[in-house]
Amino acid sequence: MAFLTTISSNENLFLQKGLGNGFPLPPKTSYSHHLNIICMKIQPSHVAKSSVSQPLQYQEVASKPLNFVFPDFHFDEYMKTEAKMVNKALDEAVPLQNPIKIHEAMRYSLLAGGKRVRPVLCLASCEIVGGEESMAIPMACAVEMIHTMTLIHDDLPCMDNDDLRRGKPTNHKVFGEETAILAGDALLSLAFEHVAAKTPTNVSPDRVVRAISELGSAVGSQGLVAGQIVDIASEGKQVSLEELEYIHVHKTSKLLEASIVCGAILGGGHVNEVERLRNYARCIGLLFQVVDDILDVTKSSEELGKTAGKDLESDKATYPKLLGLDKAKEFARELVAKAMEELSYFDASKAAPLYHLANYIANRQN
Question: How far apart are CA 41 and CA 253, in angstroms?
Answer without folding.
Answer: 12
